[in-house]
Amino acid sequence: MAEKFEALEQQLELFIENTRQLGIIVSDFQPQGQNVLNQKINTMVTEMQEIEKFRPLLQDVHVPLEVFNYIDEGKNPNLYTKDCLEKALDKNENVKGKMDNLKRFKGLLMVELTKVFPNEMNMYRALKGEDRLK
Amino acid sequence: MAEPIRRPDQISPRSSPRDRGSRSPACPRPDSTGTLKTTISLGKNPSVKHTGPFYCLKDIPEQSEITGSTNLLHHYGLEHSYNKFCGKKVKEELSAFLPHLPGNIDIPGVQDNSSLRLLIEKPPIIGKELTQLSGLSLAGFRLHPGPLPEQYRMLHQLPSKKKKHKKHKKEGEKTNALSEAQSKFK
């Protein structure tokens, strides 16, 4: 899996480098550079063909759309990963807090109900005891 | 009121389930757990179950291995990733992630129509075959000699602090180049 990403990355780097060199030629064009320019344009087409070959290998790769918002704003996509992990941890802590508090509440409620309805609570404990054994 | 007695051969799979008095599996029974003190089930094996003396007492759900109180980052082996991304400061700029890309990539993509969102909303034409350009097609790429106008020249250059110093020295050269370019376009 990692190999095909590396291979695609290398191909993209070649394409970008070729485009950059094209930009340099064009920025201050000289007539003797026309053949080189034509060569570079055709190299661009060849490299696009090579990139196209990677498409079937990457059909099953899914990218979350939210990361595109980060890239479009000129931000590091690792910030998206960082935000996801932080949100997951926050939510985890939030839910754990709720569960702990509900368990504590259950314990306190059982104590108070036993004081007010001792017979019913004994019946309840017997029932719950049977259910737990099942 | 006695119901008409049906002969076994009259009862066929095509007959309505309502006639037979049993419930069809296509019509799910609504959840009545906890609403009655007893549960009565009809059918081939009719039975009466006592749900208990308490109103709304439901069965305890089965214990799950993973709950909200489990440390999910530890469970899924993401502690190393968490320390890597959240332990140290992550640089905000896109150029920190892609340092070798030419041009200024830290600006929003909307400014120069290079946003990925636009690519999804308005996808380019695909499916056409990519072929090399012929000599006739390449004739369209014959350029006039000389430097580009100022606004297009900076596109391929990397933004760096070192170049700012060089700009002060080259200001005189640029104004000359600009005036030459302007004269060529006239």
**N- to C-terminal separation of chain A?**
47 Å
Protein chains sharing the most extensive interface: A-B, 52 and 54 residues
The averaged pLDDT of chain B comes out at 71
Number of strands of chain A: 1
How many strands, what sense, and barrel or not for the largest sheet of chain B? 2 strands, antiparallel
Tell me the fraction of residues in β-strands of chain B, as a range: 5-15%
Structural class of chain A: mainly alpha
- Strand percentage of chain A: under 5%
How many domains of chain A, as an integer?
2
- With strands numbered from the N-terminus, the spatial order across the biggest sheet of chain B is 1-2
Shape of chain B: elongated
GO molecular function (chain B): transcription coregulator activity
Organism (chain B): Lottia gigantea
GO cellular component, one term (chain B): mediator complex
Family (chain B): Belongs to the Mediator complex subunit 19 family.
Question: Layout of SSEs?
Answer:
The complex is a heterodimer of chains A (134) and B (186).
Chain A: H1 2-27, E1 28-29, H2 34-52, H3 66-72, H4 78-116, H5 118-133
Helix pairs in contact in A: 1-2, 4-5
Chain B: H1 17-20, E1 38-41, E2 47-50, H2 72-75, H3 79-87, H4 94-97, H5 116-121, H6 135-138, E3 146-147, H7 150-153, H8 161-185
Antiparallel strand pairs in B: 1-2
Subunit structure (chain A): Component of the Mediator complex.
Family (chain A): Belongs to the Mediator complex subunit 10 family.
InterPro entries (chain A): Mediator_Med10
Structure description:
- The complex is a heterodimer of chains A (134) and B (186).
- By secondary structure, chain A is mostly helical.
- Chain A folds into two domains: 1-61; 79-134.
- Chain A has helices at residues 2-27, 34-52, 66-72, 78-116, 118-133, and one strand at 28-29.
- The radius of gyration of chain A is 32 Å and the shape is rod-shaped.
- Chain B is 32% helix and 5% strand.
- The termini of chain B are far apart.
- Chain B is built from eight helices and three strands.
- Chain B is mostly helical and 186 residues long.
- Chain B has a two-stranded antiparallel sheet.
- In chain B, a hairpin with a 5-residue loop joins strand 1 (38-41) and strand 2.
- Classes of the chains: A mainly alpha (134), B mainly alpha (186).
- Strand 1 (28-29) of chain A pairs antiparallel with strand 3 (146-147) of chain B, so a sheet runs across the interface.
